[in-house]
Amino acid sequence: MQLKRLSLTHFRNFARLDVQVPASAVLIVGRNAQGKTSLLEAIYFLATLNSFHADTDRQLINFIEARNPLAVARLQATYERNGREHQLEIRVIKEQTRNGVERSRKEVLLDGAKKKANEVIGHFQAVLFLPQMLQIVDGTPRHRRRYLDLALAQVHTQYSENLSEYESVLTQRNALLRQLSENGGDHSQLDFWDQRLAARGAQVLAARFRAIQELEQAAARLHHGLTRGAEVLRLSYQPSYDPLPAPAGQRMLLDAPTDRSGISAEKIETGYLAALQKARREDLARGTTSLGPHRDELRFLGNGIDLGSYGSRGQVRTALLTLKLAELEWMHARSGQRPVLLLDEVLAELDESRRADLLERLKANSDQVLLTTTDFNLFTPEFLESAARWEIDNGQLT
Ligand SMILES: Nc1ncnc2c1ncn2[C@@H]1O[C@H](COP(=O)(O)OP(=O)(O)OP(=O)(O)O)[C@@H](O)[C@H]1O
Ligand SMILES: [Mg+2]
User: Rounded to the nearest whole angstrom, what is the distance from the C-alpha of residue 37 to the centroid of ligand 1?
Assistant: First the structure.
């Protein structure tokens, strides 16, 4: 996978940017608040059609442009995939509903033809490391689920459709639960929603179980290298509905995550449906759905200890780096393409030997990597020699 050209119009603090992207590593240098992170965010948006960063797409539209009632932010990329060149264009368009509420919608064109967002996610592939993403390790379960979902959406064509369908069924089931518990009524109305929830939820779970298993294999090896053998990293997925029977009488050991990747989606669906029906009374009392992928947890264990609760800053940071490099390998194995690697301030907080190790590894593991920094003294002379350098100043590239 290779990004060859990027154009932005009214995206964040870029009024207009048009740049050829070299095949080598690119070092994006600039003072604070000049647009380094925004540039990486733009490239990642082309892959996931989602910003890890913004709460709504509207925040991506340039402030000044956004005063215009018909404001549009435009992202265009030319990239090579499987030896063929493609063009992707995404427009984020501001709209006003009839009652004056502002929102945005996306228009997507792949090689000139209009597409649905779900059809295009992952056509261009990228892996992004942002310091804010440390929350994947030490933030809430929602951060971790979102991480998995964004990664899976890029390699699994059906995943985002299954997930968004699951979420919309979930909203409707919850609304019905509340309605039944407030006003009473025939509980069998839930059957229809239970079935649809189980069907989509099982697909989501099966994909996540498999991804966890594959990611963990890559992560374990990479982490061994990055910590020079000092720490063993494990990924432990803890489902609210577990297709495996609970071990009798004993709590599962934290450092022995369970492999659920061999369980078929059909089997998950049957078990999940039964569990939903069993939990119905409780769900009615609470007015919300207690079981399913929206309630699951993922934990990162360093030498058997939950890094989210007990990890040091450096441990959390190294675990996240491992995870991102594992994601890259995993996407490569799954799709035959090496994603473009986007690293924001990745060297900060690492000691000198870890910085050198990481830079070495980047050269070996990625086709194309874009890194930001406020200080290029952090980089080794060999790396600086091989990398192109972009200076960024107030949304302008030089
Ligand atoms: N929609 C928007 N329109 C215009 N400017 C924006 C918009 N969203 C963010 N900005 C501004 O763009 C500037 C660049 O932000 P960005 O996060 O890319 O900076 P950075 O170069 O990564 O800085 P740092 O080194 O501090 O991380 C910031 O001043 C930010 O407030
Ligand atoms: Mg930044």
Answer: 7
Cα separation, 20 vs 5, in Å, equals 4
Closest to 129 (Cα-Cα) out of 279, 361, 341, 290: 341
Q: Hey, which residues does 7 pair with through a beta bridge?
A: 18, 76
The Å distance, Cα 165 to ligand 2 centre, comes to 34
Ligand 1 pocket residue status of 53, Cβ below 6 Å: no
How long a stretch of residues is the chain?
A: 398
Domains defined for the chain, CATH in brackets: 1-125+339-398 (3.40.50.300), 134-336 (1.20.1050.90)
pLDDT tens-digit readout, 299-343: 999 999 999 999 998 899 999 999 999 999 999 999 898 999 999
As beta bridge partners, residue 370 has: 26, 342
Q: What are the structure tokens assigned to 16, written together?
A: 């207009």
51 lines ligand 1 (CB under 6 A): no
Contacts of 5 (CB under 8 A, 6+ apart): 18, 19, 20, 21, 76, 77, 78
Atom of ligand 1 nearest to the CA of 41: 18
Q: Give residue-wise pLDDT tens across range 183-202.
A: 999 999 999 999 999 999 99
